[in-house]
Design a protein that fits this description.
Order of helices and strands: HHEEEEEEEEEEEE
Shape: globular
Largest sheet: 6 strands, antiparallel, barrel
Number of helices: 2
Number of strands: 12
Distance between the termini: 37 Å
Helix content: under 10%
Length: 211
């Protein structure tokens, strides 16, 4: 079961990196600013929005006790499961199930039966994007947990996003420098013998409730 879940999580990250992003405007493509977009796949009533496909998964011992989703801008969205399940944004739905969005670029949700309660939660005070499109064309998905190698000579940095090429590391809650326009991140190609590149963020994707 652990091996299956690990494969599912890895496939979710890879599909997120390879999925097509919305067409960027000229200003985004030129990197003059970061566009913040909220993806709204599920209403507060637990019903999927039009155009979203739902697939079912069975994960033993799946719970929603970890608090609010850190990628959500609206209340009622929780982090469920564990790092290996890659379910950082989940909505309560029918028959003791949740609908979880793994990749805001792909209109697909997973329906999972959960144990215990799904209590109401407020939105995070300072949410982090669930996904990032970099001006360079690289695409990244937020780290849901697990052990990542530290970056040599940067002991206070930690891994924040997994990308099609390399990973993002940095200080703070998500390593994103919001003090500049567009936002900046650090792309690390090899943590042990690091090649570090500063990259600009074109699009930042958040999770929200369907209207």
């Amino acid at each position: 079961m652990r091996a299956v879940l690990a494969l599912l999580a890895a496939l979710a990250v890879l599909s997120g990196a390879a999925a097509p992003a919305p067409r960027a405007s000229a200003s985004v493509a030129s990197g003059r600013h970061t566009v913040r977009t909220v993806v709204r796949p599920v209403g507060r009533d637990g019903v999927p929005a039009a155009g979203w496909r739902v697939v079912r998964e069975r994960i033993y011992g799946f719970t929603c006790n970890s608090g609010p989703s850190r990628v959500a801008v609206d209340p009622g969205i929780r982090y469920c499961g564990a790092a290996i399940t890659n379910t950082v944004a989940c909505w309560k739905s029918a028959r003791h199930t949740v609908l979880c969005m793994r990749n805001p670029r792909v209109h697909q949700l997973v329906r999972i039966r959960y144990r215990g309660a799904f209590r109401p939660v407020r939105a995070a005070a300072r949410p982090s994007p669930q996904a990032l499109d970099l001006v360079s064309g690289n695409r990244c998905i937020i780290r849901s947990g697990g052990a990542w190698s530290p970056v040599k000579r940067h002991p206070r940095w930690f891994g924040t996003y997994s990308c099609a090429r390399g990973n993002l590391y940095g200080p703070g809650r998500d390593g994103i420098d919001r003090s500049v326009r567009p936002w900046r991140v650090h792309l690390v190609l090899n943590p042990r013998r690091p090649t570090i590149r500063q990259r600009r963020v074109a699009i930042a994707y958040y999770a929200g409730n369907a209207r």
